[in-house]
Amino acid sequence: MENTPVIGVAGLGTMGLGIAQVFVQAGFSVLATDEVAAARDGAGARLAGALDRRVAAGRMTAEAAGAALARLEVVPQIADLSPCALVIEAVAEDLAVKRALFAQVERTARGAVLATNTSSLRVGAVAEGLAQPGLVVGLHFFNPAPAMKLVELVAHAGSGARALALARAVTEGAGKTVIACPDRPGFIVNRCARPFYGEALALLEEGRSPSDIDAAMLAAGYRIGPLSLIDLIGADVHLAATEGISAAMDGHPRYRVFDVLRAQVARGDLGVKSGRGFLHPDAPGEPPPDAPAIALRIEAMLANEAASLAAEGVPPDAIDTAMHLGLNLPRGPFEAARAQGPDRIRAELARLRARASPGLQPRYDLQPALAAL
Ligand SMILES: NC(=O)c1ccc[n+]([C@@H]2O[C@H](COP(=O)([O-])OP(=O)(O)OC[C@H]3O[C@@H](n4cnc5c(N)ncnc54)[C@H](O)[C@@H]3O)[C@@H](O)[C@H]2O)c1
To answer: Could you tell which of 9, 15, 325 is best to mutate to test the pocket of ligand 1, judged by most ligand atoms within 8 Å of the CB?
Structure first.
């Protein structure tokens, strides 16, 4: 590729290295750095290892892997990112750290678009205090970045059209599906996924077994059940994400942090990484007789959350695509609602609301966009 913009990556941890791989594989030159010398020194070997695995799997030729590796240049400091047209930061999830980093980048890589890979901070907050906040956008990659097709492109209130267009063009140029989303907590996927876990935890708190819940979702075509997914992510990581969204949404009961999750973390049963989780090391058993009712309940809540985001201006088909690609769901929340039948979805929400404790009733309030489905 000729005349392609040089991409900068700050932070060479899990996400930064994966993002660098995405771009070098697609033919972009990448300049990357990390404040930790060991992360810089090891980056080439880690990338070579990842590319070798692709070659071994027959997904890339050895020649292409060698060329991709040669396109990564690890540089000692942020100031060395000056030739970049777009700098993506994947440093610590800390507002002060990200702001300080972008302030440094905008002084050296003048005019570069600054993209943050934050999962939980407001992109507008990262841009605050910069000389050119219009150059800041969110580019939210999913883990593992080379494998996950979706990237959420986040515009904050002051993001400039040129910055958004450049971020979109290069990310699509690297083969990703880019979906625009507002600067709201959890963007699309992390917000609309809440009920997948949350309603499973509600069921658990009501006394259903982890196996029944996960088996019901597997029977409905989901690749993994919600509780097994928490086991994979780590209950502590999941709790932190849930608490973050709950706080950002002013503690609305749709984002309830269930006691059963807190207790799990307090016990140290974090999932795969601790050796025991909600289900781990076991797999779900046979689906219970009422498996379709469990799936209906979770899909009704997924659709209701998606409807609440649609009311904020995100097109339903964009939400379906994002959920399909970002969470590997077999169908998006609106597709699922149509397959279940909108009347059944609405009736299920009404049923759940009628039997909920007063504090939880607003959790099940029908969202207007779903009323019209
Ligand atoms: N891990 C995920 O699943 C995931 C998914 C999407 C987004 N994110 C976001 O991506 C970002 C990075 O996450 P990660 O999981 O790759 O973290 P990580 O801890 O694996 O890597 C962060 C890297 O940044 C480096 N770093 C920290 N401060 C720096 C600075 N000021 N300048 C240069 N380098 C610095 C660290 O040395 C480390 O190597 C976070 O904002 C996170 O929220 C993570």
So the answer is: 15
